[in-house]
Amino acid sequence: MLDWYDTHKRSMPWRETDDPYRIWVSEIMLQQTRVDTVRDYYHRFLEAFPTVEALADADRDTVLKHWEGLGFYARARHLHTAAQHVVDEHDGTVPSTMDAIKDLKGVGPYTAAAVLSIAYRKPHAVLDGNVTRVLSRVFAVDEDATTSAAEGHLRDLANELLDPDRPGDFNQAMMELGALVCTPRTPHCDRCPLNAVCRAHDAGTEEDYPITPESEPVPHEDIAVGLVFDDNDRLLIQRRPDEGLLGGLWEFPGGKQEGDESMEAACRREVREELGVGMTDVEPFYTLSHAYSHFKITLHAFRGRLADGPPEAREDQPFRWVTVDELDDYAFPRANRRLIEELVRRQTEPSLFD
């Protein structure tokens, strides 16, 4: 595995540093996100926050703005909180023991093992989706890989195989093999350094592993949002609660359609419920579809004027009036960002507002 890795590993910026902070940032970013997507974000994020102290000192909105578009925003919030903990409790040094690093917000078994093995060369095996797939095929593990029992079995195998002299490289070799060769569909077994010992390959059943339950249908929801303008052509935006989906990001007020109400009615109701104001001169503005990790939405945006007021902020959900040009200063979910792009486009073509 190490010989194969030394020859075939991809060049990545986080593989060119021994700084535990930078390695930690990369591991958080790489969770459920493609390598090619992470590269640019990694560089920009570290330009803004080159040290753990810089990240700890930043305000939450600034951190989220630099994370905007990367998704899974709880990662950014937890990384920010954990950086403050590292500064306050560990003098700015990322912990080098399993117990201490797992105390950090957002650091689970995988991230802890990855940072400790790569940055500190500690003998902790990682178990992510790629490693699970490789081990399940090599050993033909006939267990549901999503169960805790199977996870424990696979973790034991990973630790038994781990090279104690180069644990970080071995972990990365296993993940790299899963990403480049032992892929979920049509694996490249002819290029695999483990094909001679892989039980699934020997039986021709590679794609039967890992064993997982059948996927449930992806839910779909219709969402109505209001683009509420005041008399000065400023837009009303509000910040989502810190916890939960897209926590801490700014958005246009809105929510799910209820029952058989029309989308316009849903928009008016949601704006009233969330900010205590009504809308007048309401008209359809834009409709778009967007997919999250576990569900899909169709977003129906309506444009209108503030009918009464002033708005009232909910606890942990402040609001602001901003111009279209100022929207770029705030971190928005990707679907809202697409609405902003349409707003900007129509702003440059005033006739489209008629």
UniProtKB/TrEMBL annotation:
It holds the Pfam family NUDIX_4. It catalyses: Hydrolyzes free adenine bases from 7,8-dihydro-8-oxoguanine:adenine mismatched double-stranded DNA, leaving an apurinic site. InterPro entries: A/G_AdeGlyc_MutY, DNA_glycosylase, Endonuclease3_FeS-loop_motif, HhH-GPD_domain, HhH_base_excis_C, MIG/MutY, MutY_C, Nudix_hydrolase. Signal peptide: none annotated. SMART domains: ENDO3c (SM00478), FES (SM00525). One of its GO terms (molecular function) is metal ion binding. Its cofactor is [4Fe-4S] cluster. This is Adenine DNA glycosylase. The lineage of its organism: Bacteria, Pseudomonadati, Rhodothermota, Rhodothermia, Rhodothermales.
